[in-house]
Description:
The radius of gyration is 22 Å and the shape is globular. It starts with 6 loop residues before the first strand and ends in a 22-residue tail after the last helix. The chain has 17 helices and 8 strands. The chain has 3 domains: 7-186, 3-Layer(aba) Sandwich (Rossmann fold), CATH 3.40.50; 193-306, N-(1-d-carboxylethyl)-l-norvaline Dehydrogenase, domain 2 (Orthogonal Bundle); 316-414, N-(1-d-carboxylethyl)-l-norvaline Dehydrogenase, domain 2 (Orthogonal Bundle), CATH 1.10.1040. The protein is an alpha/beta fold. Strands 3-2-1-4-5-6-7-8 form an 8-stranded mixed β-sheet.
Amino acid sequence: MQPMAFRAGVLGAGQMGAGIAATLIRTGISTTMVDVNQDILDSGSARARQLAAGRSKSKAGQADAVESAWIASLLSTSTSPAPLADCDVVIEAVTENEAIKTGIFEALAGVLRDEAILASNTSTIPISRMARSWVHPERFAGMHFFHPAQRMELVEVIRGEQTDDQTVTALVDLSRRLGKTPIVVRDCPGFLVTRVLFPYLSQALELLLEGVPMDAIDAAAVQFGMPTGPIALYDFIGLDTVLAISRVMAEGYPDRAQTSPLLVEMVRLGRLGQKSGAGFRKHDRNGSRPAADPAVESLLRQYQHQNHAEGHSPAQEEITDRLFLPMLLEAIRAVDDGIVRDPADVDVGVTLGLAFPASRGGILAWCDSEGAGAIIDRSARYEYLGPVFHPPASLPRMAGTKGSFRAPTSPATTVTMPLGPVS
């Protein structure tokens, strides 16, 4: 096996950086991983090699000596960005903090080749805004992998206002080379997948604050067809990560996105989820079933008392509506805003990126199966909860014409032409 004549860089050696690096090297791409913290770099590079080896196993279930040597030859590390000068594509995968990211971009000026592509793995931060910190905004774009990057199939390629066609095409081609399914989306806070996910997560916290038990919330989502519930998902993603996402979303969509005070308090208490051993539930390193935590129950009772909402027990249908109707309405807004070329891209994105139940065909396919009129009627029951439940103007029009999101277009996986920037 010989490395491809193509070099990639990964900035950041945390979990996401390690997963991206593993995905690159197991495809035969020479990769340089950079992190300013030597301990994190050592840990991240070891994890990247382990993940890459785990993709192709010998008869004994472990990478053989030849494979191990090949993997090792493909991955180099540095605490300095200087080795990135030889890279064709550099993927930034540091913490979801705009100031940190843009500071890194500014530090890379004069290091990367003029023709190199710089891509950010951000899940929410507008690409066009961050591009102001890079000397070649036409070769800057989003390349959003999903956690865990070595396993999740979807990649969002986000085109900023100045991103050129060649950059978008190159990142789409790279995604496919890595065995991923890319969807090209226009720039906006949260892009497509995180934008659709956020109302689901937010409503889960609202239900908690109203006194609905977290087990009931998660059970409703699983019954709908999700692999896990939203409260469990908070702990998996990391509450600090969701808090960073929520602040970007609240800035971008102030009429319908807010940062929950409960989330702020949980992060302040160091309850970050699986990574810290405690979030909404307790976690141990042995992988045992997450356990209820009396400390969280006590905290929730305080908030519920303030809201005069102890012991709210809605029917499962109401919980399901509260979780999934806001997701659907936001997905429709994204279509109306031109964030995707084809509604089929939305269904690909939520199915591969959020594990929305494939049996429902995607979130817009679910809308078609329920009927636009029925969705409007169900949403009307909850309009008192705010704009997140207000149907976009296109939905009543669709109901009036008995239209649907189905169209005889090619699947999203065959779309190669890049989208233009949002006007």
